[in-house]
Amino acid sequence: MPVCDICCEELPSEAEMKTHLFLSHMENVMACPFCSLSGVSYDEMSFHINTAHIDKDSQDTKTTVVDSGQKNSNDCTAQRPSSTKTSNVNVKNMETVSQASPQSPSPVNGMTSSITGTCLSQETSTSLKSSPPAAATASGAIKLVRTTPTSSNNASRERKDGRRKSKQKRLSSPIKEKCFSCPMCSLVCKDCFILQEHVELHLQDQDATEGAGPGAGTSKEASSTSNGRSAVMHYECPMCALSCTSSSSLQEHVELHLENGSASATGYSSEDLTLARKLQEEEEQKWREAETRREAEDFKKLQKQFGLDNSGGYRKQMERTMERAVSRGQMVPAEFHRKKAEMLESLASGMDDGRSKTSGLVEALCRYYQKDASDCAHVWLCAETDHYSSSEGDKGWGCGYRNFQMLLSSLHRMEQYNLLPVSVPSIPRVQALIEEAWGQGADPQGASHFNHRLQGTRAWIGATEIYAVLTSLNVKARIVDFHKPTGPGDTHPRLFEWVKEYFSHSASRGARLPPKVVQTTLPPIYLQHQGHSRSIVGMEQKVNGNLCLLLFDPGCAPKEMRRVLSQDTAAAMVRRMRKFSGGLKHRQYQVVAVEGLLTPEEKRSRILNSRTLCAEKIP
Hints:
Elements: H1 14-25, H2 42-52, H3 54-59, H4 112-115, H5 153-172, E1 180-181, E2 188-189, H6 192-212, H7 214-226, E3 235-236, E4 243-244, H8 247-258, H9 261-305, H10 314-327, H11 333-349, E5 357-358, H12 361-371, E6 376-381, E7 387-388, H13 399-411, H14 427-439, H15 444-449, H16 463-472, E8 475-482, H17 493-507, E9 517-519, E10 525-529, E11 532-542, E12 547-552, H18 558-561, H19 570-577, E13 578-580, E14 589-597, H20 600-609, E15 616-617
Parallel strand pairs: 6-9, 8-15
Antiparallel strand pairs: 1-2, 3-4, 5-7, 6-11, 8-14, 10-11, 10-14, 11-12, 12-13
Enzyme class: hydrolase
Region (Disordered): 57-90, 97-116, 121-170, 206-227
Organism: Carassius auratus
């Protein structure tokens, strides 16, 4: 039965022996008997001894085999090369040796038998027997030939106990020496001189392989593989998949990469880079085209929303509206032709036809508050003003023009503004007036925004256009911008206070105690916010101090506005006209207030200043 040379355990077969060695001893700490190397596997230790200590073994005493004392025990034989020049040396003479003492240079604790192939006895003295020489291997390494001892159980147990004690003693002592790793294999040495000798052996093997040719290299590789470790070193190129057998060949190969082969390697990278850039450019081009289409669509939507899509102005919209009414049966052809003729006549004269106008509303409001205003402490109303509603020709975009008509209807009733046109102009005529104001140099930025053209479009106008046309008509006006909320819940209490100051300041002149309902001589205030505009015609102050605006909305039809003229229905319409602070929650509001007439010098100054038109901001 095979016996383990390390722990002397008997095993039933060679397969069991291999499994035992791998599981019990391959991963344990092993120490070199000639130096301080440890912590390597069995194959690495064998390779280390056969390469680093070849000369030391030849200078020591001859390899001995100690008989175990049994007659049927086999001899332990070993053969080593005596030098690097001679490949095989037969060990013939054997000497009697005693058990290794602590002072002896022989291997420690009986571990030599598992590494060098010699068998040492635990007895104090034994007789040395001769053994036939073993065949030398191709690489000159020591080949171990082991036999199964047939000693008695007591002798085997003693050897086993002694080796276990020596093994435990070796494992219990920590290794604190510095370790040196071989750069050409996984060997670790504790002595730098041993590592130097080991590396020199590597270099000698490489030179021998290169000089001997392919046949010698194959033989060396096969011989080394038989010992469990490959002696042929392979160096992989970091730039390709080539594997070289020597460092010099690898160096020449890498230099070819860097010199001649760099062009081809760069070519592949350049092709990849070119492809990547091409794909990126295509992606960016697609993104730019999509962004351009999206911007064009958004711009068209904005043009359509603000009436700049060249779809026609007041006249075309009025004609299309009447044609749809005829096609739906809501209007007979005779009425269509009559209304179209009236429209063309009004456009030719430049005056509004008055179909959407409602007069006498401010006077009716004054009567209403004098009769039914128990919850109001004070009420201020503007001068008499006509209400102009949006018609079929300007529905959806004409609120700014209609509020300007309301303002002009109030100014026409005041003597100081007798220089203005006698009648209220139509919407196409108001567009022409704004273009004339731009022609005089007023608000060049606004003119550029509309491309200096309003007639024949459905363009929206705002506070700046109203200011420009009033300046061109010699009317003094100012724009006040309430650009952010000043109260809780995004409300504008400062706007309400400003409107109260506007109406109450003129009404309190020369009066110690103003009356409860006051109709002033002031024109209405143009109120603009995002998407819509209205006219402020009055202000209520409740008993509890809350302020409320009274608004004329161009979106309210003439039929609804006429309900203010009747005392029975006036209360319902007044409730619709009221706007408390919580009802105005747009982020920004602008107002245009008329303050008198302009002298020629003031007009020229305001036109020049309108090049960089700045509104008065509150707060």
